[in-house]
Amino acid sequence: MTSIRANAGKVVCIGRNYADHITELNNARPKQPFFFLKPSSSILPPASGPVLRPTGVILHYEVELALIMGRTLRDLDVNDRQGAMDAIDGYAVGIDMTARNVQDEAKKKGLPWSIAKGFDTFLPLSNYIPKAAIPDPQNAELWLSVNDDMRQNDSTQLMLFPIPRILAEISQSMTLEQGDVVLTGTPKGVGSVVVGDVMRAGLRVDGKDVAEGMIEVRVEERGGPYVYTET
């Protein structure tokens, strides 16, 4: 798949899918997968420039395994593991950037928080990873560092809801189409970055980094007219 961004009709993101991450943000543990959307315009392809921090935003990183859908999926049975895995074309590593103060305010007021996830450059993605490079996506290690300080480093085995369950739940409420991106949740260690920081992220299989999954991206000031103010 030559361009993940060009082919992505939507980006569906699973929230609260690692127990320790739920604890660190003082969130409630979900009884079933829940998800939100990021616009495909938030995707930052490899070597396409920096993550841009909007003025007044407290910027957080969240490393995740991304699924790249290879076929249409609708009303998938939750027990159809093979059907779920066959629908995946490949993978990528993603960093779900979040305007945390924007999101926190929206949550407190019962407002939608799409803006907190949807700014341009708020989804750096690695290159496309072929399925053969990750034989078992539930047994890989995600990691992220900031200025060479390791911040996140955990196994996808720790997902509360495995990939087939995730895809089934999404497909029962909205059709997944070829090229769509599904983010599967982030492990513990989420935190802030500031202008000048350099994030690196990747994925290991059997202790070895998958070359296609490497991300290196700097944080810079966005500029422009947007300034965060209370809603």
Biggest sheet details: 6 strands, mixed
How many strands in all? 17
Radius of gyration: 17 Å
Task: Describe the strand arrangement of the main beta sheet, using strand numbers.
Answer: 2-1-13-6-7-10
The run of helices and strands is HEHEEEEEHEEHHEEEEHEEEEE
Main structural class: alpha+beta
Q: Note poorly predicted spans.
A: none
Give a brief outline of the structure.
This protein is of the alpha+beta class.
Give the helix/strand layout.
Blueprint: H1 4-7, E1 11-15, H2 19-24, E2 34-38, E3 43-44, E4 51-53, E5 59-61, E6 63-69, H3 81-86, E7 88-95, E8 98-99, H4 100-109, H5 114-118, E9 123-124, E10 129-130, E11 141-146, E12 149-155, H6 163-171, E13 181-183, E14 191-193, E15 198-205, E16 208-209, E17 215-221
Explain what the structure shows.
The protein has 231 residues and is of the alpha+beta class. It contains six helices and 17 strands. The protein has helices spanning 4-7, 19-24, 81-86, 100-109, 114-118, 163-171; strands spanning 11-15, 34-38, 43-44, 51-53, 59-61, 63-69, 88-95, 98-99, 123-124, 129-130, 141-146, 149-155, 181-183, 191-193, 198-205, 208-209, 215-221. The strands form four sheets. Strands 2-1-13-6-7-10 form a six-stranded mixed sheet. β11 and β12 form a beta hairpin. It is globular and about 45 Å long.
Keywords:
231 residues; alpha+beta; six-stranded mixed β-sheet; 6 helices; 17 strands; 32% strand; globular
